[in-house]
Specification:
Number of strands: 0
Low-confidence stretches: 75-91
Order of helices and strands: HHHHHHHH
Helix content: 40-55%
Number of helices: 8
């Protein structure tokens, strides 16, 4: 009987040598398969067991986080204090009820010297000019109202002049007469406020007021 030549890749299960060759080639695999139920050394379940119990509390999104106070930075130069300096009060803005004392070198009571620059009908501008020329600079309150009164009178004269020009062009003087009446009422109200000691500060005239106070020096 002629024996049939078999290939090494023949895996016919009827081959009597198939089981032996399989055991020799798959020894390592069989060892792992047989020992699959045994625990592997070096592997612990401790990391997963820590999460078996739920945490006792969760952080709330409604509780704001606690922040530390940021360090204070000193922005001062050369070690100077960064505390803002309080500016001294301006004498003519700390209004009080005018007294009856006589103003230095003017010889009139303070209450009259303060309201005279706001007198209407060009009287105030003359009084303001006299006070700026005569009253010394240490009488800051009197000089301030004299300069502000003169600035107000000059502004009213300029606006009145413009209304007259417009009246000549348009042939009507209604606007000029209305402005003259309003300016006269404002001057009277200014006199009353200063007499009562109320603060009377016309901010749009600050530049002209300061210039008049500085340029018109008191007579020595």
């Amino acid at each position: 009987m002629i024996e049939e030549k078999r290939s090494k890749y023949d895996t016919d299960p009827l081959d009597p040598e198939f089981v032996r060759r399989t055991e020799e080639m798959g020894g390592a695999t069989r060892t792992v398969a047989r020992d699959g139920d045994a625990p592997r050394p070096g592997i612990s379940e401790e990391p997963t067991r820590r999460f078996e119990g739920p945490p006792t509390s969760y952080p709330s999104v409604f509780v704001p986080p606690t922040h530390q106070q940021p360090p204070t930075v000193n922005h001062s130069t050369f070690g100077a204090s960064a505390t803002p300096q309080v500016q001294p009060a301006i004498p003519h803005l700390n209004e009080r009820r005018p007294s009856s004392r006589h103003v230095t070198k003017l010889g009139v009571p303070e209450n009259l010297a303060l309201i005279a620059p706001y007198a209407p009908f060009y009287i105030g501008i003359v009084a303001a000019l006299i006070e700026l020329v005569v009253v010394p600079r240490h009488e800051a309150r009197v000089r301030f109202h004299a300069a502000q009164g003169m600035a107000l009178q000059l502004a009213m004269i300029a606006v009145t002049f413009l209304f007259k020009i417009l009246g000549m062009i348009t042939g009507t003087g209604f606007g000029g007469g209305l402005f003259w009446l309003a300016s006269t009422i404002f001057l009277i109200v200014s006199m009353v406020r200063v007499w009562r000691g109320e603060r009377h500060h016309i901010a749009p005239l600050d530049e002209l007021t300061n210039r008049l106070n500085q340029q018109i020096a008191p007579r020595q």
